[in-house]
């Protein structure tokens, strides 16, 4: 049984009144988050459903660790199960095209993101007639969060390169530089792990945005169709922005490989 943030009564009400299948309800700690369409009511083509999941950068759980006697620190970490959480924002949208009605659940990890979503919807009530307005807003929130983190990682890589003299046009003797190579090695290794995470998270975001673009092209066909054009432009811009940071991440990843060889000399 996967943990879900709803009572049994709420689940029954969502299934009865909004035709939300239990298996598709957004939930925490689910390992099978994906992007897909489904039929809320089998045989009724007026009802459509879509599930969209977008990853955030992982964060380590805050755990206070005290190493017991006669036990290595590493083995203790393995025993207690130190975990890294790839936070995800999930959206479930049900659309009744016959009556132009939309029902949805957006499960957020951070309260501020939920507040930003509500503010955007309240400021643009006309766009709220489009069933995919909320997922587009969430995509924007997620991409700008990834942009901030990617920019920090890029700057970290450039700072390490600068400290090692890669950006200097004058020949320098590294033996005369006051550098802490042990700390430098740790910084490079840490950045290497971050780049591996970046590949995973940014690639996942590209897949989610591609899926969202496909849905904006397909539905709705009614009064909200014109709004889909502007939302589609926003989604395409978010994808291009994510692709740009994927390129920057690839550049940093290549730099890390060179830096690893340098600090190991």
Structure class: alpha+beta
Number of domains: 1
| pLDDT < 50 runs, ≥5 residues | 60-85
User: Mean pLDDT, rounded to whole units?
Assistant: 77
Percent in helix: 40-55%
- Report the order of strands and helices: HEEEHEEEHHHH
Main sheet characteristics: 4 strands, antiparallel
Percent strand equals 5-15%
What's the SSE blueprint?
Layout: H1 8-17, E1 36-38, E2 47-55, E3 59-60, H2 73-80, E4 84-85, E5 88-96, E6 101-107, H3 111-123, H4 133-163, H5 181-218, H6 225-264
Antiparallel strand pairs: 1-2, 2-5, 3-4, 5-6
Helix pairs in contact: 3-4, 4-5, 4-6, 5-6
What descriptors fit this protein?
265 residues, alpha+beta, 4-stranded antiparallel β-sheet, two-stranded antiparallel sheet, 6 strands, elongated
Briefly say what this structure is:
This protein is of the alpha+beta class.
Word description of this protein:
Strands 1-2-5-6 form a four-stranded antiparallel beta sheet. The chain has a two-stranded antiparallel ribbon with strand order 3-4. Helix content is 53%, strand content 12%. The chain is α+β, with helices and mostly antiparallel strands and 265 residues long. The chain starts with 7 loop residues before the first helix and ends with a helix. It is elongated. The model is unreliable at 60-85 (pLDDT under 50). The protein contains six helices and six strands; from the N terminus they run αβββαβββαααα. It has one domain (8-264).
